[in-house]
Design goal:
The chain is of the alpha+beta class. The chain folds into 2 domains: about 350 residues, Metallo-dependent phosphatases (Purple Acid Phosphatase, chain A, domain 2, 4-Layer Sandwich), CATH 3.60.21.10; about 290 residues, 5'-Nucleotidase, C-terminal domain (5'-nucleotidase,  domain 2, Alpha-Beta Complex). A 7-stranded mixed sheet has the order 7-8-10-11-14-12-13, sandwiched between helices. Strands 23-20-27-22-30-31 form a 6-stranded mixed sheet. A 5-stranded mixed sheet has the order 5-4-1-15-16, covered by helices on one side. Strand 7 and strand 8 form a beta hairpin. Helix 1 runs antiparallel to helix 9 and helix 10 crosses helix 13. The N terminus is likely disordered.
Length: about 775
């Protein structure tokens, strides 16, 4: 199937990351076509400009107070389009999740902005399924069933409608700009979600035959189109999508009626299909993460470009991938002799990832006779110096208005109602929505605390912010549980927005919300926990805790790139660990965890964890999961939930209550209505006024005021060489780094004994 393309020697000039690389970006190589690919990646609901840490090509960092946001991204997109009319705007990764604004509107708040970009093709991320399959199908599918929105979703979808969108000539006046599908069966729908006006592609998500009441002819058929084919200046380009394969490991409500594959089995047939249709350039945009995407590029030489997402990595230099060779091109200098040889003699693929909304990817491809003969790549910083597009800012301001207190100091009341909190046939059966579910009653600009240190989530194993969140959970719950709480944890999510202290902010740098340096707002807390879990406490054995953490470590550092899943490692409270990531696991020594101690907030003091001992563990619970889950740990007993006395007052009294339901949480049931005759029913598990991680962070900040390194500094997790004695000065070692690019956050080759890599012919 390989086209065995001939690629002549090229010179790649990667301009410095601080420049915009607009009018000067396209290579000048004589006759041929320059195709510009614009990569919009992992927006995560970030409507507004915000603080950020920009990575410079020389390895240094700089801090911005007004970076990112969709209005600034639109300015750069339009400038690039003006620079080269032969362009494609390709979006990949999580977009409708990541902020309070999209959480409380099930993604509707960002959809007008996304529809205004003029996206040519989009591939969703795992969190775009996070509001359930009904929302996903209504929003992103161009064919197939459009299920009626569940009653709880109807409550949240009412907050934004097409009628709320400002009238902007030549932008919102197109009849296709905003539509809401409002199906009527099996019970009335009064509110729909805003539909995407751009094509959504993925080869690897199917209608499932067992978990949803779908008609037989839909069983095992694709939910989305697998690809789009475009023509620019006589060149046909295929854009193939691969969405996240990890959705089934998230709560069941994400994927009812959906089945996911890795996408690799589908690629040979899809590639042959687009080639038969005349596509000479093949682009795959994939939400599998950088490690898996590099592996796909190795296995499929027909792929010209791999636009990677999900892992939020930043490839300042594009990766050239073929076989065992993975070469990072260096920003600011031409290709080396070895890099030229790789491109001359091998069919190398270009693999790039552009982080989150703080960067916009630009890839200029010089194409001659259907072959790529040269390219330039830049991850363009969306920084303080980029102006906001006026029309897009109008859309953003309209989306933000309900979440910011007006002149009267009043903010619109929002409710997030998880699955199971409402039952058919209609939203009135939800009861008093102001007292059921997660309530937002304060302006997102409300200052809730301060920090003396930079807060971000940018390390695989440990960050100050995750230590703070874990400590906040334990401190809040410890006083409620009669026996006290031994340990707490927080998920190692990748999404965040950095919070700058006074140490990072220069004179003249102002924040969008006029805060002072070091101030933490309510919006910030939601950036770090923009999902809706309840809080639960249970008793676990020491062995169960360690076994669950080993599973997480395996997902982060597996030598098989297709098995690297989920986010990064967890934040730990009252627990410290030693990990050997280089020499373990292997059969004679067990897993990667060398030792775990309980009873300290830092360092490696405390008592060794007893595998047979019982520990009280408090953390998050994803709604509709089995009632034996605490954060990423399963198998406990005596689960109880924390409940607020007043759903609208995060500081009100907390009590412990039993689960509302504990079995048959997700089930397909008969429904006495016209077809479909069956529906999926979700039972409520957490109490109406459940305690949320943002509540606990606010309470902890109220009590402690300022986040400091002394309180929450790193050191709870140490990497060691377990082949040496602890007394050996070389016992403590640095964590592993990516061999292809040491600036990447997560080792794309995984970590552990080399024989695992040999088994799957990975990096040697």
């Amino acid at each position: 199937m390989s086209k065995n393309k001939f690629r002549p020697a090229i010179t790649v000039l990667l301009a410095a990351a601080g420049s915009l690389l607009l009018s000067s970006a396209a290579p000048v190589m004589g006759a041929g076509t320059t195709l510009t690919i614009i990569q919009l990646q992992d927006l995560h609901g970030n409507l507004l400009p915000h603080a950020g840490v920009i990575q410079n090509p020389d390895g240094s960092e700089r801090y911005v107070t007004q970076g990112g946001g969709v209005a600034k991204a639109k300015t750069l997109v339009d400038q690039i389009r003006d620079d080269n009319s032969n362009n494609l705007l390709l979006a990949v990764g999580d977009s409708t999740q990541g902020s309070a604004e999209v959480l409380y509107t099930v993604g509707d708040a960002i959809m007008p902005a996304m529809n205004a970009f003029g996206i040519d093709a989009f591939t969703p991320g795992n969190w775009d399924f996070g509001y359930g399959p009904a929302v996903f199908r209504n929003r992103f599918t161009s064919f197939g069933p459009k299920p009626t929105l569940p009653a709880n979703i109807q409550v949240m979808s009412q907050y934004v409608s097409c009628a709320d969108i400002p009238d902007i000539p030549d932008v919102t006046d197109d009849p296709e700009f905003c539509t809401e599908i409002t199906a009527t069966q099996p019970f009335p729908t009064t509110h729909g979600v805003i539909k995407a006006n751009f094509p959504t592609v993925a080869v690897n998500v199917y209608n499932d035959a067992t978990s949803a009441p779908l008609p037989g002819f839909l069983h095992h058929t694709r939910v989305l189109k697998p690809y789009e084919i475009f023509e620019r200046d006589g060149v046909k380009i295929a854009v193939i999508g691969i969405t996240a394969s990890i959705v089934p490991q998230q709560p069941d409500v994400f994927n009812i009626g959906l089945r996911f594959t890795q996408g690799t089995e589908e690629l040979p047939g899809i590639i042959a299909d687009v080639q038969e249709q005349g596509a000479s350039i093949i682009i795959v945009q994939s939400e599998l993460g950088l490690s898996a995407n590099v592996q796909i590029a190795r296995e499929f030489p027909e792929i010209d470009v791999m636009l990677s997402a999900h892992t939020h990595e930043l490839t300042l230099g594009a990766l050239l991938v073929h076989g065992d060779d993975v070469t990072r091109t260096t920003p600011g200098r031409p290709l080396s002799r070895g890099e030229r040889k790789q491109l001359n003699n091998k069919n190398a693929a270009i693999v790039v990832e552009s982080g989150e909304d703080l960067y916009l990817g630009r890839l200029d491809l010089e194409i001659s006779n259907g072959q790529i003969t040269d390219f330039t790549w830049e991850a363009i910083p969306v920084d303080d110096d980029v102006a906001e597009d006026a029309d897009m800012k109008t859309l953003v301001d309209a989306a933000e208005e309900p979440f910011i207190a007006g002149m009267d100091g009043i903010v619109e009341h929002h409710t997030f109602m998880p699955g199971g909190f409402c039952t058919p046939p209609s939203p009135p059966n939800c009861g008093d929505t102001n007292n059921r579910g997660l309530q937002l009653v304060d302006s997102l600009d409300t200052v809730v605390g301060t920090t003396e240190v930079l807060l971000e989530r940018h390390n695989v194993l440990e960050d100050i912010m995750n230590n703070f969140i874990a400590d906040a959970i334990r401190a809040t719950t410890d006083s409620v549980v009669a026996t006290g709480v031994d340990v707490s944890m927080t998920n190692g999510f990748r999404f965040d927005v950095p919070i700058l202290s006074a140490n990072e902010v220069s004179p003249g740098q102002d924040f969008v919300d006029d805060r002072d340096p070091g101030q933490i707002t309510l919006r910030d807390l939601y950036y770090y926990f923009p999902i809706s879990p309840a809080t639960v406490v249970a008793e676990f054995s020491g062995a169960a805790i360690v076994e669950s953490l080993e599973v997480v470590l395996e997902a982060v550092f597996d030598r098989n790139p297709y098995r690297q899943r989920g986010g990064w490692y967890l934040g730990l409270a009252n627990m410290t660990q030693e990990l050997d990531l280089d020499n373990r696991p292997f059969s004679s020594s067990g897993g990667r965890i060398v030792g775990t101690r309980i009873g300290t907030a830092g360092g490696l003091a405390g008592e060794p964890l007893d595998p047979s001992g019982r520990y009280v563990f408090a953390s998050c619970y994803g709604h509709a999961e089995p009632v034996n889950r605490v954060c990423r740990t399963s198998g406990g007993s005596g689960h109880q939930f924390f409940q607020l006395a007043d759903a609208s007052d995060y500081s009100s009294a907390i009590t412990l209550v039993d689960p509302v339901n504990s079995d048959h949480i997700v089930q397909v049931v008969d429904f006495p209505s016209p077809p479909p005759a069956k529906v999926v029913r979700i039972k409520q598990v957490a109490p109406d006024r459940y305690l949320h991680p943002v509540h606990m962070m606010r309470r902890y900040l109220d009590a402690n005021g300022t986040i400091t390194t002394a309180q929450f500094g790193t050191g709870r997790i140490q990497t060691v060489d377990s082949t040496k004695l602890p007394s050996d000065p070389n016992y403590f070692v640095d964590p592993p780094v990516s061999i292809a690019d040491s600036t990447l956050v997560q080792p794309i080759q995984g970590a552990g004994p080399g024989f695992f890599a040999r088994l799957i012919e990975l990096f040697k």
